[in-house]
Write a structure and sequence with these properties.
Number of domains: 1
Order of helices and strands: HEHEHEHEHEHHHEHEH
Distance between the termini: 110 Å
Protein name: ALG11 mannosyltransferase N-terminal domain-containing protein
Number of helices: 10
CATH class: Alpha Beta
Strand order of the largest sheet: 3-2-1-4-5-6-7
Number of strands: 7
Structural class: alpha/beta
InterPro entries: ALG11, ALG11_N
Radius of gyration: 25 Å
Shape: globular
CATH architecture: 3-Layer(aba) Sandwich
Keywords: Endoplasmic reticulum, Membrane, Transferase, Transmembrane, Transmembrane helix
Pfam family, one: ALG11_N
Main location: endoplasmic reticulum
Strand content: 5-15%
Length: about 300
């Protein structure tokens, strides 16, 4: 007698069941690998050399001119104020960066006067964190690329305090492995529940092109990809000893994924209010002059 399967491979329920089994097996294997990796990391860390008494700031782009760079220089200045004898180093991929040049840029561009120029550690592997290097699977590609870049950085100089100001969370286990205390300032999470929800709803947006949103199977595969990435993101993020975030929205997402609420602090980003004060003073003066002119009429 011939045996017939009660479910056809074309049956939608059959596809869902197959996807569930695959996801379960993948989760089980990933958990085993994570436990083995954690044991290996502990073993390797016990053999790592002692780091230098210094603060190292992982900021591969020191000429982006945005809020992230302002945070970098404010953090360097804060460390110099709190620990005047602690050297500060900046890991950068900008070949034209120099200690005096970076100090001058911090003052001219952001109004942050450093007590002394930082040391500069040049990185040659920055292309591995650029989005253009990964046409597909950009998030995981850049994340793994950042580990490679951090490997170069920490082999060149291993500081006691590793401070990430650019959001490269996948570098934290490596810094921990090198014996560093890991601190970070997170502007926004690499992945959030909002991103996954948009994929589930098959909405075509910046993180979900029409090719994927138009296919139920591709959408399911991407949801699985996001689920695994989110789990990995939480695992690496939890390696940070101190987490600073720039808003309540970011904190809620980071706490939800990294699961370290006691180490997560909300620190609002530094803002240059001096220019605003000048504008207010000028406007106030004009208002007074205008009122005085009206009174004389």
């Amino acid at each position: 007698k011939k045996l017939y399967c009660s479910r056809s491979p074309t049956d939608p329920d059959f596809g869902v069941a197959s996807m569930a089994i695959f996801a379960g097996l993948l989760t089980f294997v990933s958990t085993l690998l994570a436990l083995a990796l954690r044991h290996l990391l502990r073993l390797l860390r016990s053999r790592a050399p002692d780091p230098a008494a210094a603060a190292g700031f992982f900021h591969p782009y020191t000429n982006d001119g945005g809020g992230g760079e302002r945070v970098l220089w404010c953090a360097v200045r804060a460390v110099q104020d709190l620990c005047p004898d602690l050297p500060c180093a900046v890991f950068t991929g900008d070949a034209d960066a120099s200690p005096d040049g970076l100090a001058a840029r911090a003052l001219d561009r952001f109004g942050v006067r450093l007590l002394r120029p930082p040391q500069v550690v040049y990185l040659n592997k920055r292309k591995w964190i650029e989005a253009s290097t990964y046409p597909r699977f950009t998030m995981i590609g850049q994340s793994l690329g950042s580990v490679y870049l951090a490997w170069e950085a920490l082999n060149k100089f291993t500081p006691q305090f590793y401070f990430d100001t650019s959001g490269y969370a996948f570098t934290y286990p490596l810094a921990w492995l090198f014996g560093c205390k890991v601190l970070c300032y997170t502007h926004y999470p690499t992945i959030s529940s909002d991103m996954a929800e948009r994929v589930k709803q098959r909405k075509s947006m910046y993180n979900n092109n029409s090719l994927i949103s138009g296919s139920i199977w591709l959408s399911r595969c991407k949801v699985l990809y996001y689920t695994i990435f989110s789990w990995l993101y939480g695992l690496v993020g939890s390696c940070a000893h101190l987490v600073m975030v720039n808003s309540s929205w970011t904190r809620s997402h980071i706490v939800n994924i990294w699961k370290v609420p006691e180490r997560t602090k909300r620190v609002y980003p530094p803002c240059d209010t001096s220019a605003l004060q000048v504008c207010l003073d000028s406007h106030q003066s004009q208002s007074i002059m205008c009122c005085d002119h009206v009174n004389t009429l």
